[in-house]
Every structure is written in structure tokens, then in C-alpha cells.
Write a structure and sequence with these properties.
There is one protein chain. With 201 residues, this protein is of the alpha+beta class. Helices cover 20% and strands 31% of the residues. The strands form two sheets. Strands 2, 3, 4, 5, 6, 7 and 8 form a seven-stranded mixed sheet that branches. A two-stranded antiparallel ribbon has the order 1-9. Helix 1 links the parallel strand 7 and strand 8. Helix 3 runs parallel beside helix 5. It is rod-shaped, with a radius of gyration of 30 Å. The N and C termini lie far apart (78 Å). The structure holds zinc ion (2 copies). The site of one zinc ion has 7 residues, from loops. This is DUF177 domain-containing protein. Pfam families: YceD. InterPro entries: YceD.
Length: 201
Amino acid sequence: MFDTHELGRRPGALQRLTKTIEAPKDLGIQGVVGVPEGAPVELELRLESVMEGVLVTGTARASAEGECVRCLEPLELELEADFQELFSYPDADDRGRVIAEPGDDAEDDEDRFFLEDGLFDLEPLLRDAVVLALPMQPVCREDCPGLCSECGVRLADDPDHHHDAVDIRWAALQGLAGTMTDGEKDEMSGAEAGVDEKQEK
Ligand SMILES: [Zn+2]
Ligand SMILES: [Zn+2]
């Protein structure tokens, strides 16, 4: 919650403030990437008093943690999220006129934010801004080669990794048997035979 009492209600009044808050729970894209709960979030805010309320413009900076969608390694990225929203006085309509019964048009009010006793809640705004600023498919680096589609090894650890165009079921056997030929393959019952064959040569 942020206080606008110091700002006052005179249109045109400005207030800038910086504040570090602790990240609320589930700040980010759930299960993909987000700011850990309790981690510092630096806020830079500019409050401007306007006719119908307080216009809040700001930037949030934090470190987000997640997992690379290609290679599944943990990753950390610096997040910068901009936001702007008008918090209306509960007794004013869009043009700042005082209305008799605030909130009687519930549907219209759904997308609007209101000041409550001069206070506003930044959290919903922060959540939306953070989600928009985060990548839906975070990668550890732009050219992350990901995992081998055949054996799942991390290709970044092993750039020359490749498989010959053989049936995947023979791949393990072939690795043990070394220079085995097609003819010999039929005579052998398994990996053990392959090793023996190699030693004889
Ligand atoms: Zn990666
Ligand atoms: Zn592989």
C-alpha cells in the first residue's frame, strides 16, 4: 500500500519516490520464470495528482529465476517492468466529477483502480507488469542448442555430439562394440559379445 496524502489532491502536484519492497508470492509466470518470494524489488514511482485521482507511473527492477525451456538449466535474468495506471478517487467518475453512488456500475469498475482513504495497492499493477516483461519461453542464452532429441544430453556441453543415422535401439550396442559390422551383428547376442570381439582384434 502506498500513501498519497503527502501528494495532496491539487491537480498537477507531483511526487517521486523510490522504495525497495519484498516480492510477493507468485510474482511472475507460474512454473516458468518469476521473482522468488521475498526477493528485493526496486520501485521507482512517480505520483501525479490529476482531476480524477492519482496517476502512478513506475518502473520495477528485480532478478527473476527460472529454467531454460531448451536445456532445462536454471537461469537468472534481470527484469525491468514499466507500468502506469490511474487510481481514481472512489467518489469521482472518469472526468473527475463527484458522483452520488460510487461503484453502482460494477461492470464498468472492473478494470479501474481506486484509491482507498488516499492509499493505493500497487500489487495487481506490479503483477501484470512483471508478467508482461518476462519471457514466456526463457532461454539461458539466445543460441542455447538445447538437448539432443535422441539421447537428451546437453548439446552445449558437447558441441560435436551427434548420432550416426542408425536405429536408436542399436546405438548403445554400437558404442560398446566399436567397429562392429553388419555381418557380425547377427552372430552376437549382446554387448558382452561385442566387447570380446573388440579385444581379439
Ligand atoms: Zn539453455
Ligand atoms: Zn544424443
